[in-house]
């Protein structure tokens, strides 16, 4: 009997069981609701505007709605420090989850009721409001996910959250297109507003996270000021805080720089749209999902230090695979291998690095600190990419460019290894 139980725990059933626990399932529901607002102001809105005859220059103005997501750290402290009246009786996280869920639904409904052809200014405002509500919803969702998951579940929970995000964004986008063809864009947006419900229901059913810790002060202006400065002061008082910040800023520069240019490479190598759809979209999608699953599994088995270090190496090598593809030329097998490896590495890395960033958060300031960390992790890579990627390719060529992105990933690996050797990277134990 004992042998059978041991076999069950180490077999397929044992591998799947952690994904079915309450915390990871809640993270999946949170991910679904997190992904859909992004889709509403992304490709879905672009398609709606195009079908309404809006010119391309005006459509590009709607990118300002996404800028709100990059600025969410400016008001994230409110989610930690402001206690809501009446709803607050349900708990700090649950009350904010319900409030922001309602705000997202209201913002999407507002966007549904605006006519872009007649009132383009009002449509821009409505899209920005969806971005603002969605970004705030994200702040609460990230904090709720981190505090609901036990330390041992951070990897698997991060993976389930990413599964949910993919399903929420893709599902809402697909449903909107189908509904628009049958009942019009207003009905499509109204139905998609219901995608906010999974996170809200998870909050009601799971309740206030047991790991949530309130800031010490809870009175008046002193409490508000503590909520604003507390996350920063606490972080920079830690041992080696500047090294950790440096790692957050640089670890993904090479990966971000490479990712923006893949479609340019495919076009210059002569791949057809059908080939790109099969390999980049098809193979890449399933490889990414597999990477997420393996990342959650190995995080639980190997621990944070080893899994993050492996993820950094894999993401580095994935850039090198595109240097090989650029050398090989038009090769379907080469494209499938490069895309498959890159997406699997990204899925793996996304899970374990997000779990590491989640473990960095002090439980008194989860919302504010995670918003700051996630913003820092993307801001340098996006700036460098936007400023120099095209010029570098024209100057160096694709092979040398991807070799450069491979080298740019090395400092992050070395820095994390140094942090591990210095005892600055701890296994998740429920505290920062």
Shape: globular
What series of H and E elements makes up the topology? HHHHHHHHHHHHHHHHHHHHH
Number of helices: 21
Helix content: over 70%
Q: What is the CATH superfamily label of the largest domain?
A: MFS general substrate transporter like domains
Q: From the coordinates shown, what is the CATH architecture of the largest domain?
A: Up-down Bundle
* Cα Rg: 22 Å
User: Low-confidence segments, ≥5 residues, pLDDT <50?
Assistant: 1-8
CATH topology assignment of the largest domain: Growth Hormone, Chain: A
- Overall number of structural domains: 2
Number of strands: 0
What structural class do helix, strand and pairing data support?
Answer: mainly alpha
* Separation of the first and last Cα atoms: 40 Å
Mean pLDDT metric: 83
The percent range for strand residues is under 5%
Question: Can you offer a commentary on this structure?
Answer:
Helix content is 78%, strand content 0%. It is an all-alpha fold. The protein folds into two domains: 21-212, Growth Hormone, Chain: A; 225-421, Up-down Bundle (Growth Hormone, Chain: A), CATH 1.20.1250.20. Helix 14 crosses helix 20 and helix 17 packs antiparallel against helix 18. The chain is globular, with a radius of gyration of 22 Å. The two termini are 40 Å apart. Mean pLDDT is 83; it is low at 1-8.
């Amino acid at each position: 009997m004992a042998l059978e139980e041991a076999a069950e725990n180490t077999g397929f059933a044992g591998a799947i069981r952690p994904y079915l626990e309450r915390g990871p399932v809640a993270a999946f529901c949170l991910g679904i609701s997190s992904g859909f607002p992004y889709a509403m102001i992304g490709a879905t809105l672009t398609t709606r505007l195009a079908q309404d005859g809006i010119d391309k220059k005006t459509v590009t103005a709607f990118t300002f709605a996404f800028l709100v997501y990059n600025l969410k750290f400016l008001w994230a402290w409110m989610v930690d420090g402001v206690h809501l009246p009446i709803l607050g009786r349900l708990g700090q996280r649950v009350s904010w989850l319900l409030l922001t869920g309602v705000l997202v639904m209201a913002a999407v409904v507002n966007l549904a009721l605006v006519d872009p052809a007649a009132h383009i200014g009002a449509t821009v405002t409505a899209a920005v409001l969806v971005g603002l509500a969605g970004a705030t919803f994200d702040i609460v969702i990230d904090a709720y996910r981190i505090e609901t998951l036990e330390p041992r579940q951070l990897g698997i929970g991060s993976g389930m959250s990413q599964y949910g995000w993919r399903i929420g964004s893709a599902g809402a986008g697909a449903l909107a297109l189908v509904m628009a063809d049958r009942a019009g864009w207003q009905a499509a947006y109204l139905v998609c507003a219901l995608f906010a419900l999974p996170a809200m229901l998870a909050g009601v059913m799971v309740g206030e996270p047991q790991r949530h810790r309130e800031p010490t002060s809870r009175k008046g202006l002193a409490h508000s000021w503590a909520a604003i400065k507390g996350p920063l002061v606490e972080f920079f008082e830690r041992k080696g805080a500047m090294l950790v910040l440096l790692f957050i800023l640089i670890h993904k520069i090479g990966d971000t720089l490479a990712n923006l240019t893949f479609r340019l490479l495919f076009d210059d190598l002569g791949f057809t749209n059908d080939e790109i759809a099969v390999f980049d979209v098809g193979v890449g999608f399933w490889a990414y999902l597999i990477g997420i699953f393996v990342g959650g599994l190995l995080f639980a088995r190997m621990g944070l230090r080893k899994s993050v270090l492996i993820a950094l190496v894999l993401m580095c090598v994935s850039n090198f695979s595109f240097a090989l593809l650029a050398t090989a030329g038009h090769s379907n097998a080469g494209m499938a291998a490069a895309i498959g490896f890159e997406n699997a590495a990204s899925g793996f890395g996304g899970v374990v690095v997000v779990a590491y960033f989640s473990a960095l958060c002090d439980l008194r300031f989860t919302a504010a600190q995670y918003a700051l960390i996630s913003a820092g992790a993307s801001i340098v890579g996006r700036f460098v990419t936007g400023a120099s990627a095209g010029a570098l390719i024209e100057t160096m060529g694709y092979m040398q460019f991807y070799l450069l992105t491979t080298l740019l990933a090395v400092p992050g690996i070395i820095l994390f290894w140094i942090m591990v050797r210095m005892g600055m990277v701890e296994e998740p134990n429920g505290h920062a």
